[in-house]
Amino acid sequence: MARPTIYLLRHGETVWNSLGRFQGQLDSPLTQRGIEQADHVAHLLRDTLCNDDQLFQMQVSPLGRVRQTAGRVQAKVPLQSVEDDRLVEVTTGSWDGMTRFEIDNEFPGNLDGSNAFDWYFRAPDGESFDEVCKRATSWISDVRHPTIAISHGLFGRILRGVFLGLLKQEMLELPVPQDGFYRLNDGRCELITV
């Protein structure tokens, strides 16, 4: 049985994104650039949906930066949105809201041997990679209708990786643009951007 089409969007740039601060399940508002990105993606999505005769539903992470992005998208694509906690960003527990520099100073040695991608899963009280994969798998398996999902950078990587059946390192190295979105359909993942 063919799975429904999913359009996966990431929220626009936030204040903490611009400062290199990992938000996790904390929040910061969109920057002006993030608002422009959300508006750009909304136009791009509207134009894409004009060529797609499916009836879509919208599911969003409950965090403020996604709800702010969703509001911008809904101005162009007037669909009701439903919040789904499974679309929330990965948490690094007590490291949420910190930069890598701050983590390295306050938790010496915890980042030793990590790379630009796997450090998220070294927090002593954060989510494990396996927990996040289970959350992504659960969400994907519950999608029954064509869906627009608005989520986050790291969780979006893992969600796409689970969808494609990638290995951990392959998932974590996936790009996370804020000026486009992904179409997940027929076992493929296509970046849509202009």
From TrEMBL:
Binding site for substrate: R10, H11, G12, E13, T14, V15, W16, N17, R65
InterPro entries: His_Pase_superF_clade-1, His_PPase_superfam, PG/BPGM_mutase_AS, PGM_Phosphatase
Cellular component aspect of the GO annotation: cytoplasm
GO molecular function list: phosphatase activity
Signal peptide: none
Pfam families in alphabetical order: His_Phos_1
UniProt-listed Gene3D superfamilies: Phosphoglycerate mutase-like
Active-site residue list: H11, E89
Ranges that cross the membrane: none
PANTHER family in the cross-refs: ADENOSYLCOBALAMIN_ALPHA-RIBAZOLE PHOSPHATASE (PTHR48100:SF59), BROAD-SPECIFICITY PHOSPHATASE YOR283W-RELATED (PTHR48100)
Name of this chain's protein: Phosphoglycerate mutase family protein
Organism in which the protein naturally occurs: Agrobacterium salinitolerans
